[in-house]
Amino acid sequence: MRKNVFLTVSILSIFFFIFTLYQMYRPKVGPIGNGEISTLTWIVIFFPLVQGIIFLILYISLAMEERKSNEL
After folding, report:
1. b/e 25-57 (16+ beta carbons within 10 angstroms → b)
2. 27-54: per-residue pLDDT in tens?
3. Which of 19, 36, 67, 68 is the 20 to 30 Å CA partner of 61?
């Protein structure tokens, strides 16, 4: 159960990262325009990617641990 939660959070975090990149580079109309992207924005954007990778590694390690315990 715990490993399935890690997989779900990992997939959702990576999806959120991709969606945020899409929203950031989508053409905007009006007073907002395509202004500069600040450094803080990049930190907020890449946090879900790093989080998704960490949860994916946790999922893989738990799956391997469970597989080893089933072999014994």
Report:
1. eeeeeeeeeeeeeeeeeeeebeebbebbeebbe
2. 766 666 656 666 667 788 889 999 999 9
3. 19
Q: Residue 52 in contact with residue 20, Cβ under 8 Å?
A: no
* Nearest partner of 7 among 46, 45, 61, judged by Cα: 61
Q: What is the rounded CA–CA span in Å between residue 52 and residue 64?
A: 18
Quick one: tokens of 72? Answer: 């014994």
Encoded tokens for 17: 């990262």
Between CA 58 and CA 5 the distance in angstroms is 10
- DSSP per residue over 3-63, as a string? HHHHHHHHHHHHHHHHHHHHHHHS---SSSTT-PPPHHHHHHHHHHHHHHHHHHHHHHHHH
